[in-house]
Design a protein that fits this description.
This protein is an alpha/beta fold. A seven-stranded parallel sheet has the order 1-9-8-5-4-2-3, with helices on both faces. α2 packs across α12 and α4 crosses α5. The chain is globular. The relative contact order is 0.19.
């Protein structure tokens, strides 16, 4: 798809219902079953590298349930952990900011020589992803803001947090401790007991500088590259619904609506993988 064709196709949102969960499950089983399977996934030839970047308080671990479905469909998948989080929490310092996290991503691209990449940033990752789009645009096929911040230059994460009482709580904990205390996973849509048992021990505080230092961009977020926003709508998040509303009719954007909570990669990985596989073919 050319950039002009992409822009022409961006006027209407695509809605993805959780009621069709079995569709990807069947395709994934067919792919993972190997060459002897009679039915092949329609996505198996796409093959673009996919980089999945986690949000605040999380780590690369949060994509564990999605990754096999993407690799089984023929993609190379990378799930980096940003400095100070996840398995890199032992490196945490209060002064770790968006700039360092953008450098984390740039190092991955350069060390792995990644090109023609579908870059997916969940939640907070919309911030460092936007910086990377200015630094390595020639290596990107397109950007997927997965219920993520779509920042304006000079803005901070904390400026976008909703509702106001949550913003004030994060400011208080951040200024007192140097770290933003995690919000409850239930507030991110994770309510299943097994999901909570798996995810909760892996959640860590976020270095507060990444929330309070402003981002500096030379162009609007996405740097003119093809870009998609995935809005998680069941329930919708107050902090991210504002971005879905902004990009809905904006030139150069395409909107998908996913009937899942904010942490959809934990809640419904088959549906997330199905949508990402389809998107990888759109760019």
């Amino acid at each position: 798809m050319t950039l002009q064709e992409f822009h022409r196709s961006s006027s209407e949102p695509t809605r993805v219902s959780m009621g069709r969960r079995s569709l990807l499950a069947g395709s994934a089983v067919a792919v993972l079953a190997g060459p002897g399977c009679a039915t092949r996934s329609p996505y198996v030839a796409a093959g673009r590298p996919i980089v999945l970047v986690h949000g605040a308080w999380h780590g690369g671990w949060c994509w564990q349930r999605v990754t096999p479905l993407l690799t089984g469909a023929g993609h190379r998948v990378f799930t980096p952990t940003l400095t100070g989080l996840g398995d890199r929490a032992h490196l945490a310092r209060p002064d770790i900011d968006v700039e360092l996290h953008a450098r984390d991503l740039q190092a991955l691209f350069e060390m792995e020589d990644l090109r023609d990449v579908v870059l997916v940033g969940h939640s907070y990752a919309g911030m460092p992803m936007s910086l990377l789009a200015e630094r390595l645009p020639e290596r990107l096929a397109g950007l997927v803001y997965f219920d993520a911040f779509v920042p304006e230059s000079g803005k901070r994460v904390i400026d976008y947090i909703q509702p106001p009482e949550r913003r004030e709580a994060l400011l208080k904990s951040g200024r007192e401790t140097g770290f933003a205390a995690p919000v409850p996973l239930q507030a991110l849509g994770v309510v299943d007991a097994a999901d909570l048992e798996w995810a909760q021990p892996r959640i860590v505080p976020q270095p507060f500088a990444s929330f309070e230092r402003p981002i500096q961009l030379k162009s609007p977020a996405g740097n003119g590259l093809p870009r998609i926003f995935i809005a998680c709508t069941k329930p919708a998040s107050g902090s991210f619904g504002q971005f879905a509303a902004t990009v809905r009719n904006a030139p150069g954007w395409r909107l998908h609506e996913l009937e899942s909570g904010h942490d959809a990669m934990i809640i419904d990985p088959p549906r997330v993988a199905e949508l990402l596989l389809a998107i990888a073919r759109e760019f």
